[in-house]
Write a structure and sequence with these properties.
The complex is a heterodimer of chains A (281) and B (379). Helix content of chain A is 41%, strand content 18%. Chain A is globular, with a radius of gyration of 19 Å. Chain A is built from 13 helices and ten strands. Chain B is of the alpha/beta class and 379 residues long. Chain B folds into two domains: 184 residues, Thiamin diphosphate (ThDP)-binding fold, Pyr/PP domains (Rossmann fold); 109 residues, Rossmann fold. Helix content of chain B is 39%, strand content 21%. Chain B has 14 helices and 16 strands. In chain B, strands 2, 3, 4, 5, 6, 7, 8 and 14 form an eight-stranded mixed sheet that branches. Chain B has a five-stranded mixed sheet with strand order 11-13-12-15-16, sandwiched between helices. A two-stranded antiparallel ribbon of chain B has the order 1-9. Chains A and B meet through strand 2, helix 4, helix 6 and helix 13 of A and helix 3, helix 5 and strand 10 of B. Strand 2 of chain A pairs parallel with strand 10 of chain B, so a sheet runs across the interface.
Chain lengths: 281, 379
C-alpha cells in the first residue's frame, strides 16, 4: 500500500479515530483520498469546509476528517446541509452519501437539492448495495443481481444516478470510479469549484457483500472490471449504442450555468428590504 | 415589525410568528400543513425583511433536518407543523436531543389519528411529544392557552432551547392557533431574550459536549473556527462516537440531568382557587379556557371548584400535582383525547382522589357546560 502523503495526513483525525470501519478492499477510503487531494489542490482551509453525511458505510467518512463535520440521520444529509449552507453561506458544503442513503431513503432530498441548485457538492459513493447492514439491494443494484434481500435475483431496474440528477437540475454531474483515481481527483475538484448543485457518482467495489454474493471475485478483480467495463465520455461519443451496451461512462456528463439558490435568496432579501425602505409603514 | 407595547387584534399562529421574530429567529424550514400553515406564511413574508432565511422544504423530515443544520450553523431556528408532520419529525427530535441542538418545533394539534380531522382541534399529540421518538430522552414541551401566550411562550421556547441546548416543543392546538384576540404586546425592554453561550476556550481545547458547569456546555457554530464533529451515534465529550461504558453512561446521565436537576427553572403551573377547593379541574391548552368558564358558572351555582393548569407539559409537574391535587376529593380532567395526561394525574395522586375524565375526540371543543355537568355529578 502506498504511504500516506504528508498533505493527506494533515486532513485526517489521525490520532483520534483510526482504524476506520471499512472492510479490506472497500473503495470508500479511495474516495476519501480523492476528496482530500481535491480540497488540498484548491488551497481551501479546513475551517471553511463543511462535510455532511447520512448513515451507512460512506457516511462514516466525516468522522475521520478534520473539517467541520456532521453525521446526520439516514437519508437526510442534504436536508441538514441545506440548513447549514443557508445559515452560513460562506462554508464550502460537501455531502457524502452512499447509494441507498442518497437515492432510496434520501431520494426526495437529493432531487430537491438539485432542483434548487443550492451550492452543495454531493459525492455519492455507489457500491450497488447496502454494505453496513450486510448487503441488501439498493436503488442502484443491477437487474438479476443477488443480494441478501434479492436472493432469487433483483427484479427491479436500478437508477441511473447521473441521468436522474441531471434531469432534476444539477449544475454539474460526473461519474468516476475508484480505479481511475487521478481522474476522480479531477472530477471532484471540478465539482467543488462549480457554483450550484454538483454531483460526482463514484463507483466503488464492495467485495465483502455485493462482490461475494455475485461471485465477482476479490477487490482486485472488481477493480479490474471497472477498468475493463468503463469508457470515458469522449470515447463513448464515438461508439455505437451496441458497443456501449453494458459499459459504464466516466467523466463529466452534464454541466450548465444556472442561478444558484443562496445567491437568489440574498437577492430576494435585498429586493424585499429595498421595498421596505421605500414604503414606510 | 413587532408591535411592542401596542394593542392589536392578532391570531394565535400569527402571535407565534411574531414571538419567533422577537426572539431573533434567523431560519425557518417548514412544510405546509393545516392548522399550522399561517406560521410559515407570515415568516415567509417577514424573514427576508430581517435578512433571515425562510425555506419551504420538500417534507417535514427535511424541514426539521434543515432547522437542525441551520442551528448548528449558528442561527436561531424553528419549524411549525401539525399531527402527521409532527409524526414525521419524531426521528429528528430524537437526533436534536442526542446531538444537543437548540431549536423550536411548533405543533398546532389537530384531530387524528392519521389524516383525521385536519381543520379541527385535539390534544392528541401530548404523549407523542413525550414518547414519540425512540430511546430514552428528556423532553421540554410548553402549552399556550391564549394568543398573548402564543407570543410569550414562543419567546420562552426559544430561550429554553438556547439555554438547555435541546429542542423545545410548543404544543398549541387548532383553537388557540386560529383564534383571534385583542393582545397588548409587552414592551421591548420587558422581554428577556437569551442566546446560547458560546465558547471562549482556545480552539484546541474545545469540547462540544463538556459537562461543566451545569451539564450544558457553551456551543460553537460551524464556521466559527471551532471544528467539531456532530453525530446521532452515542458520543464522547468531543462528539466522537463511543461505546465505552463510562462515556455512554456519562452522556446519557447528562442528557437527563441537564433537565431534571433544573426543574425549578423549567416547570411552570398556574392555579386558581385550588387551595380552597375540594374539587379541582386539571386543564391545559384551549380546554383551560373552558375550565375557567366552568369555574365561574359553578360559582354562580354556589359550587366551589379550583383550576390547575400545567403550563409546562413536559417535564410533567410531578411535584406540583402532588402538592396541589393529592389531598383533593375529586380531580376532573377534561382533555381533547381519549385520556393522555389523565394517567399522569392518576400516577401522582392516591387512590382516595377520584379522577373524573371528560373527553372528546370528535374535533370540537369541550364546552364549559360539559365540565359543569361533570362537576355537578360529583358535588
Amino acid at each position: 500500500m502506498a504511504a500516506i502523503l504528508p498533505y493527506e495526513y494533515k486532513y485526517l483525525r489521525a490520532k483520534k479515530k483510526f482504524p476506520h470501519v471499512w472492510c479490506p478492499g472497500c473503495g470508500i477510503g479511495i474516495v476519501m483520498g480523492s476528496i482530500i487531494r481535491a480540497i488540498d489542490s484548491l488551497g481551501w482551509t479546513k475551517n471553511e469546509i463543511m462535510l455532511v453525511s447520512g448513515i451507512g458505510c460512506t457516511s462514516r467518512m466525516p468522522v475521520y476528517l478534520d473539517f467541520n463535520t456532521l453525521h446526520t440521520m439516514h437519508g437526510r444529509a442534504l436536508a441538514f446541509a441545506t440548513g447549514v449552507k443557508l445559515a452560513n453561506p460562506g462554508l464550502k458544503v460537501i455531502a457524502v452519501m452512499g447509494d441507498g442513503d442518497a437515492l432510496a431513503i434520501g431520494g426526495n432530498h437529493v432531487i430537491h437539492a438539485a432542483r434548487r441548485n443550492i451550492d452543495i457538492t454531493s459525492i455519492i459513493v455507489n457500491n450497488f448495495n447496502y454494505g453496513m447492514t450486510g448487503g441488501q439491494h439498493s436503488p442502484t443494484t443491477p437487474m438479476n443481481a443477488v443480494t441478501a434481500t434479492s436472493p432469487h435475483g433483483m427484479i427491479e431496474p436500478g437508477f441511473d444516478t447521473c441521468a436522474l440528477l441531471s434531469a432534476a437540475g444539477a449544475s454539474f454531474v460526473a461519474r468516476a470510479t475508484v480505479y481511475h483515481v487521478i481522474e476522480m481527483d479531477g472530477l471532484i475538484r471540478q465539482a467543488l469549484e462549480k457554483k450550484g448543485f454538483s454531483v460526482v457518482e463514484a463507483l466503488s467495489p464492495c467485495p465483502t457483500n455485493y462482490g461475494r454474493a455475485n461471485r465477482l471475485g476479490d477487490a482486485v478483480k472488481m477493480m479490474e472490471d471497472m477498468r475493463d467495463n468503463s469508457v470515458t465520455v469522449t470515447k463513448a461519443a464515438k461508439m455505437t449504442p451496441e458497443e456501449l451496451s453494458g459499459k459504464i461512462v466516466r467523466g463529466v456528463l452534464a454541466e450548465r450555468e444556472a442561478p444558484e439558490y443562496t445567491d437568489l435568496y440574498r437577492e430576494l432579501c435585498e429586493r424585499v428590504q429595498g421595498k421596505a425602505a421605500e414604503v414606510p409603514k | 415589525m413587532i408591535p411592542w407595547g401596542e394593542t392589536r387584534l392578532v391570531q394565535g399562529n400569527e402571535a407565534i410568528a411574531l414571538g419567533a421574530l422577537a426572539s431573533g429567529i434567523r431560519f425557518f424550514g417548514g412544510y405546509p400543513i393545516t392548522p399550522s400553515t399561517e406560521v410559515a406564511e407570515i415568516l415567509a413574508r417577514r424573514l427576508p425583511e430581517t435578512g433571515g432565511v425562510f425555506i419551504q422544504m420538500e417534507d417535514e423530515i427535511a424541514s426539521i433536518s434543515s432547522v437542525m443544520g441551520a442551528s448548528l450553523g449558528g442561527a436561531k431556528a424553528m419549524t411549525a407543523t401539525s399531527g402527521p408532520g409532527f409524526s414525521l419529525m419524531q426521528e429528528g427530535l430524537g437526533y436534536g436531543c442526542m446531538a444537543e441542538i437548540p431549536f423550536v418545533v411548533v405543533d398546532v394539534m389537530r384531530a387524528g389519528p392519521s389524516t383525521g380531522l385536519p381543520t379541527q382541534v385535539s390534544q392528541g399529540d401530548v404523549m407523542q411529544a413525550r414518547w414519540g421518538s425512540h430511546g430514552d430522552r428528556p423532553v421540554i414541551a410548553i402549552c399556550p392557552t391564549s394568543v398573548r401566550e402564543c407570543f410569550d411562550l414562543t419567546v420562552r421556547a426559544f430561550n429554553l432551547s438556547e439555554e438547555f441546548r435541546t429542542p423545545v416543543l410548543l404544543l398549541s392546538d387548532e383553537v388557540i392557533g386560529h383564534m383571534r384576540e385583542r393582545v397588548t404586546f409587552p414592551r421591548r425592554e420587558d422581554v428577556r431574550i437569551l442566546d446560547r453561550p458560546v465558547p471562549e476556550t482556545p480552539v484546541e481545547w474545545y469540547e462540544h459536549y463538556h459537562p461543566a458547569p451545569s451539564n450544558v456546555s457553551p456551543m460553537a457554530s460551524y464556521g466559527s473556527g471551532y471544528r467539531f464533529h456532530v453525530t446521532g451515534l452515542t458520543h464522547d465529550r468531543q462528539g466522537f462516537p463511543t461505546r465505552r461504558v463510562d462515556e455512554v453512561d456519562e452522556k446519557m446521565a447528562r442528557l437527563k440531568n441537564k433537565i431534571v436537576r433544573r426543574l425549578d427553572e423549567l416547570v411552570e403551573v398556574k392555579t386558581h382557587d385550588v387551595e380552597q377547593s375540594r374539587v379541582v379541574i386539571f386543564a391545559y391548552g384551549s380546554v383551560y379556557r373552558s375550565a375557567l368558564a366552568a369555574q365561574v358558572m359553578l360559582e354562580k351555582k354556589h359550587k366551589k371548584v379550583g383550576v390547575f393548569r400545567p403550563v409546562t407539559l413536559w417535564p410533567f409537574p410531578d411535584r406540583e400535582v402532588k402538592e396541589y391535587l393529592d389531598e383533593k376529593d375529586v380531580v376532573i380532567v377534561p382533555e381533547l383525547n381519549q385520556g393522555q395526561l389523565i394517567h399522569e394525574v392518576e400516577r401522582l395522586t392516591s387512590d382516595c382522589v377520584r379522577i373524573v375524565p371528560v373527553q372528546r375526540v370528535d374535533g370540537y371543543e369541550i364546552t364549559p357546560e360539559e365540565i359543569v355537568q361533570a362537576a355537578m355529578e360529583v358535588m
